[in-house]
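Quick illustration, no need to memorize.
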Amino acid sequence: MSRHPSIQARLSVFLTLIILLTAVVSGISTFYTMFEEAQELQDDLLRQAAMLTQKNELAGDTGYTEIDNDTRIYIQPLSDNSRFNLPAGEQEGFSDITDKQKGKPYRAYIHHYPDGSRFAFIQETEFRDDVAFDSAWHAVLPLLVLAPVAVLLSMLIIHITLRPVAELSKQAEMRNENDLSPLTAANIPQEIYGFTEAINHLLRRVGEGVYRQQRFIADAAHELRSPMTALSLQAERLNTRGLPADTAQLVNELREGIRRNRRLLEQLLSMARAQSDEKRVQQTIQVSRTCRRLIQDLYPLAEAKNIDLGAGCNDETELFGDETEIYTLLKTLTENAISYTPENGRIDVSAKAHNGGCLIEVEDNGPGIPPEERERVFDPFYRILGSNTEGSGLGLSIAKTITERYGGRITLADAEQFDHGLKVSVWLPRGNIQKESGK
């Protein structure tokens, strides 16, 4: 998919081009204007030098006199052409002449004195150009220096102005698929405020629809639990009546179907609770105590398949959250492992402090999950083709939902301590334990 140019990049490029173009045009115009004004100033200096120089200060009617070393003004009578090529009969005013010896261009001002004598006040053109160039350059230099500064300031202002938009985009990108809370519209520019409100309105409507769907599933599963329990009890009674062999077989199949349906209803309720936004009791949880309770509850399932189920949980590992949810997470992963691990297998459950949080691992020596299927198995009701194990495909989806609710992450990998199998790793942040415990 092609990536569209950002508003910030477009504004930065366009403003940079405008500023640079304006700086170039203004610089050229200012340079030539100042150059011409410097030239006119040099002419004024020649005229003023002629007006202020008295006739008796001159060398006479022959030779030339240098009256100012700083401005390099030379004086020569028009009757003497020993150095400068001064045309005879020149009227009072400015003219361009040359140096006979070096051929350099000069600027001359012809001045008539009251006694009729005429003198040329001469200045080197190259010197005049240097002075004019320096004056023009010093006038343009601040503009050239300020142009890059203006570009950087413009880019900075654009970045600061659009920062709320970038934060809004990051806020939407970082949230998980179950988070339908409104986007924060604080400091959002007016131009996209309406768009943000429209997105929030859409999120609210989607959230309401998802809530109604979850509520319906939870209510339906809850209402079906009592009939399923009654059916289970009736099937148990039938099994004790000494039925014929073929009838007993049918009753056993009925009991097994009821058991599977009850398991499905329990998982549907767990999924509904995991996805709901209801307020939960937050407290400090001793993970080792939860692990011991888990082993006690699931030991009969493991014993029925002669599976070695063990737990190695650090007694100091703590979490801050809802104990029921953490137990549901551990139970779901362990039940999954028991279901898919063959008889005489082994399952290890461990929990330890890791990277500022708690790392929970459930590892078995079952068939494992192919790498290409490890993303799909988190989808609700998805099951790997060819699997002969009964199940609803909700276990890993429930585990992922709970993990993401706590800001954690869940990963699947090959078993490390067995030749084959699966290792499920769940990392959960510890939460605000110190505040809750008053430490």
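The chain is about 50% helix and 15% strand.
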